[in-house]
Every structure is written in C-alpha cells, then in structure tokens.
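The following record pairs a protein chain with its ligand, beta-D-glucopyranose.
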Amino acid sequence: MRLDFDGSDPLDRERFPVDEWRLVEAFPSDDDLGLTETLFAIGNGYLGMRGNPPEGRPSATHGTFVNGFHETWDIHHAEQAYGFAHTGQTIVNVPDSKVMKLYVDDEPLLLSTADLMEYERSVDFRDGMLRRHLIWRTPSGKIVQVDTTCMISFTERHLAIMTIKVTMLGGSAPVVISSQVLNRQDGADEYQDREAMAKKEGWDPRKAGSFSSRVLEPQGHWHSDRRMILGYKCARSGMTLAVGADHTIETDNVVEELIDTQPDLGKKVYRVDATEGETITITKAVAYHSSRGVPARELFDRCRRTLDRVRRDGIARELDQQRDWVQKYWDNADVEVEGHPEVQQAVRWNLFQIAQASARADQLGVAAKGVSGSGYEGHYFWDTEIYVVPFLAYTFPTAAKNLLRFRVNLLDHARARARELAQRGALFPWRTINGLEASAYYAAGTAQYHIDADVAYAVARYTDATGDEDFLRRDGAEILVETARMWADLGFWRVDGGRTFHIHGVTGPDEYTTVVNNNLFTNVMARFNLERAAAAVREIREGDPTAYARLRSRLNLQDEEVQEWEECAAHMAVPFDEGLGIHPQDENFLDRELWDLSRTPADKRPLLLNYHPLVIYRFQVLKQADVVLALLLQGDRFSLDEKRRNFEYYDPITTGDSSLSAVVQSIIAAEVGHHKLAMHYFLSGLYVDLADLHGNTADGVHIASAGGVWNALVYGFAGMRDHGKGLTFDPRLPDTWPRLSFPLRVHGTRLRIVLEQDAITFTVVEGDPTTVSVRGESHVVGGDGPVRVELDGQGPRLTHLVPRQPAPVVRADGTVITAGVPTDPETLAQEAALQAVSAAQSSATVPPARQ
Ligand code: BGC
C-alpha cells in the first residue's frame, strides 16, 4: 500500500529550511512538540536526551534515557500458559539534567508566549550539537539574547555538556538561571496533567506503559558549591544509577550562588545583576553512570571521576574531540546525493540517527527507538541485525562487532529459553532488554523464531565485510552453532516422494499472519543459518585446530551435527506456487482471501489499531515485507523474474504499517525495474520521521528505517549485493539523480564509490587493493588509481504499473482467490440500529398477551 504522499518534499520549508548539514527549525510551535522533541533529540548510543527546551516547558514527553537502564515488572496474563514471557521490561526515564530555567526581571522565559525577535533551533550533524538561539523582548521591554547548546559526547560515553549564554542587549536586569537535575520518572511533573495526557493519547501497543508505583528509589544526594550528585536504584530490577552535574559561570557581573539537593531534585541557582552588553555564560557538565548491581555510592565516584577529568582537561578539548569523532564518522559513512539538497539533508539526518543510537552502545543493544524515546518500551528487536548491522559492518565495524558481542553475551539466556520451549540450541528473545523474552503476545512475538537466523545473518554480514576471523572463531561460531542446532531441532523431516525439511508453527517478519507452517522467509533464512554454521565449523576445523578443539569441547559439538545441518539446509521446504509463479508467504497463505486495501479508508490504518488480530489473520494482507525481504537477504537464491513476480504479487497487499517495510520494498522495486515505486518507497522511508509519516515519531526515532535508508541507497540504487562471494554491483540510479557516492570499508580497505548515469567508479582511499564485480565482470581496484566501469543504462525499466488493488487470481487447484474487506464497523452499527428500530416497532405492534 503506497502512502498518499506524492513524493514531493513533505517538509514545511518555511519552518524547516533546507540545510545539508543541519536540521533547522526557524520558528517554534506547540502543535507538534512530541515530533520535534524526537527530531532534535541527541544521543551517543549510551545516553540520549529528547529535544525538550532547557526551560522544561512546553513539552509533550520529557525524556532522558540510558541504554538498557530499565525496570522490570510481572507480566500478568489473564490466561496463563506454560512458557509465556513473565518478565516485563521498560526503559526508565532517568533524571533530567537538561533543565536550565531562565528568569529576567523575575519573568520566566517560556517559548509558547515569549515575544521572540529571533529564534533558531538546530542540530548539527558535524558536531552533534543541539543549539538554540533566540532574542527575547521581555514583558518589561528588555531585550535579551539567549544561546544554549547541548552535546552528548561520542568520545566520553557518560558525558553531556550544556551551556547557556545570556546577554542583555537592551537594558539591565536581575537574571536568575536555575540549573536542575530532576527525577521526572517518579516526581509529579510540575506542568503536566499526566492523566489528561494519557487520555488524549489513547491506546497504542507501540508506546511504553507507565508505572503506578515508584521506580527510582533514592540512594543519596550530595552537593558541594558547584557540583551535585543524585543516586537511585530501580525498585524491581535493582539497576543503579547516579547522575552528577558540575557548573561553572563566567561573567563580570555580581553573582550570588545557591545550591541544594533533595532526593528527587538538585538545583544550582545563579542570581546575577546583569548589566547591558555583558554576557553571562554557564557551563554544565553532566555525567551519568549506571550498573546492573554496583551500589549507587560507587557510581557517585564514577561520576566524580568523569567530571574531574572534564574539569582538568577543559570543555574545549571535549568539543574538539567530538568534532574529530564526527568527522571520522562521516568520512566512513556519508552518502552524497548530488543535486537534491533536501534529500541530502534527510539522508544525513537518518545516518546521524544511527550514530546517535549505536556509537557508544558498547555491547548493549540498539533499541527500536535508540535512546531517543520510550516507544516499544526501549526493547531490542531484530531491527538491529537486519537493518543496522549491514550499515555498520561497512562503515563502522567496531560498532557492528559490539552489537554482535551483545548477542554473544545473551547466549546463556537464549539457551535457557530454547530449553523452555523444548528446543535444543539457543533461541534469542523476540524483544528484550535484559535477555529475557519480553513479548507477552507470543503469536507476533516469541513465534518469530527467525530472530535466530537474523542474528546469524548479522554475524555473516560482519565477518564477510571485515574478514574478522578472530571474532568468528571465538564468538561468531558459537552463535552460528547454537542457532543452527535450534533449527535442526525445530524442523522435522517429511517423506513425500523425496525428503523435505519442514518448519512449522512460526511467524515470519509480517506480523499480520501468525503461527504458520513453512514461512518462506523463515525457511530460507534458516537454510542460510544452517549452511553458514556448517561452513564456519568446517573452516575452523581445517584452518585453526586449536580454536576448533575449543569450540568442540565448549559446545560439545559432534561431527554428525554439521552433516545434519547441511542436510536440513539442502532439503529445506520452500513454498512455491506453480500456477502463480510466486512463493506463498507460507504453506497456507494462498488459501486466504486477499484484503483489498484500496477499499480500506485511511482512518482504519494502521490495521493493528483498528481490527482484532483474528480479522487481520484471516486475510492475505501484510504489515511489512516478508517474502520481499527474503528476496533481498537471500537474493542469490531467486531469479530476477521470480523477484519481479513476487514483488508485484505482494505489493498491493502490503500495508507498510510497519516502518520496516518501505525501505525493503524500495530495494526490490529498484532491482526488478519498478523505478518509480523504488523512489516512492525510498522517500517513504527517508521521511518516516522527518515528516512523521507513521504518526508516532513522538515516541522516538524509527531506527530500523533510518538504517534502511542506507540500505535503500546502497543495496537499492547502487545495486550492491554481498552474498558471501565479494561485493557485486548492478546499479539502479534514479533518472533524476546525476550522482550518488559513498564510502565502504571492506576487509580494512576504504573504498569510495561514485555512481553516475553512465559509469560507476571505484577508488581505494586507504588500504590494499580489492576486487569488486559489476554486472558479472570482476575488477581489481587499488594501486593504479580509480577504476571506472562504463554502464549501459541503469537496469530494467518496467513500464507497466503495479496496481493498488489486488487482482483476483486463480490458485493452482483452479479455485479463485477473491479480494474483499472486513465489514466496515459503521455499516455494522447502522445495521444494528435498523435492527433495534424494527425490534421496537414489532414489539409495539404485537398485542399484549392475554392473561
Ligand atoms: C514490527 C517489527 C519490529 C518492531 C520494532 C513492529 O511494528 O512489526 O518487525 O521489530 O516494530 O521496530
């Protein structure tokens, strides 16, 4: 289902002017606070802060998040069953240190009502700095310039630095700046009526739940004349946290300073007699430290150490390091789209979100919303492995490796979970923070066994991209073996003429069809997993006997197992319908009626918020790409013609209700030659958050889609594939784009790729020569300068349209697959009303019964 935006620039450019390196807001608005808090959120993968104004209001959702810092709770199933997830996990809104309230002549600065002579808010992708500049005419007629900055360090993961500069441009006045650290998780928010907010927002399973009792138990508070530290422990999970803030002031004016701390609030207040023309600068360095169990008082010391170091080395050094770090990030990751500055800005915003979500996750996961919001409770999903790791593997391998190490560290939990579900090997949780399955609705959660293959796929992607044998031998192989064991045990053999290996009772990526037999995506990804595990074990056995002996004894690995995996893979059931020439999403998928999305009004979308799951499950209708994703990840196992037929079959019945869909649809549309759709879906992914296309950006950035933007550019338009035999390119540059260029890091070599309409050029920027293949021809790059390969066009250009309505088609058995829609609730209501009227009329005309 295509979104009804016509592909033109969807942003209001008066308010958000085009700037290739910044997201800029030219004037504030209270109408979309939740959205802009997310768009202007900053983070480093460990610590994240939403773009709330330093004054603390106006605001929709305050948020400061520490990756993985969560509270647990008991999941109460109204009808319990064995093995259901029992530990709920929710990311905690940690104490807010962004607050720097300003009063001039005792009047508070409040954007909603302030008379602003100038205003600009921006986040700069070159230094990760959130800046705000404004000139305020106070009610008493004074003119005040206020400049604030906020930066979360990529080099010091625990550190944030904020500044506020206040200059009286017209008149002198008493100025008060109140810098705070405030526990908003438990403390009543001084300005918001939470119940009213909750009612207004309504029910949405994608939002985080709220707690009815206290989460952060105070563990002490301390202050000196410029520093304050508050400590907490989560009531249930036992996680501990400390936050410390250090202040300095520069001014020639007379200043009076106060400081105080209480269990839920720390305040450092400056009262300044501000004279005209003098600037007051306050710098606030903040450190957050968290732990799974270390007492909070130890975290106090860690905060002190971080803050002491900043004080010793100076803020300027931190800012320089930040700039260098970000520069390096872009050297390795920037994708340049020539001739379309608005697209360029959006591309960079998305790529910057991945840095903000993953850079310093340092062996924690990347949540669906990174550290920008509490949507999906702060849980980690397959989003990371399929949408984020490919990007990181080719641009920022250390971060990719850390994310895989995070999964290695969860293996013991995954083994235990497999046992709980009566399986061998390891089964990763569908969604989690602490390693335990947190998906209460198993049909669209735990049943997504494909998570195991997704993790294995990420291991393969990383090792192929980097050649990091050491990781493979030590850790990667353990993941591959344990997941392969799970598949070999989960499936079963069916003898029907030949022997096929079936996997039943699973859910694929598309959550609008659940618990099915032989989901195509699951089976082909499991096949890949089994093959990769077998190949890895054989390679290690031959190449490194010591590592092999270690692996064998650690995992009690038997030679026969490897053979078994190969057999399961070789005989994997892969549903195919001869009549339609497509791969059904699962064995019984085509038995269902098609959902005619062209007859479903926009106000009934997303379907998951408007129809009972049973209604949805009855139809052929997709939340997100499923077979089409398999066509990308296992692209070497399908012909171009098969890809086209499958794409055209699934496109009209794919709602794209999940933001994980559009970018994948764009890549396959580009490959098969539906270039207009490729662009349409690319833009639908590119602007998911910037234009709030799913209406829930307020809950946080859609990180998988942001990663998918890179995938759509590199796999989609540049036509790169990496199926384990080196990099191949079959480009599909859009007609209107003169040039697309990007760097890639492959086995330590840094390549630069420039794609134009008539050629693709490769240059080794750093490292050894490497080989790439373009449309079947190999080229060695390196040594003698750039290699330019002429291109005869940009692949097939299909002229027929893919209709929006699914066409009735005939099944292999001759029956017709019809298309329909569930009865509209309004029609049902009208019918019920009519029935009530006629019942009332008939009771009025029936004569009273005789006594
Ligand atoms: C999607 C999942 C995804 C999750 C978190 C859901 O809506 O269906 O595939 O993992 O969101 O992003």
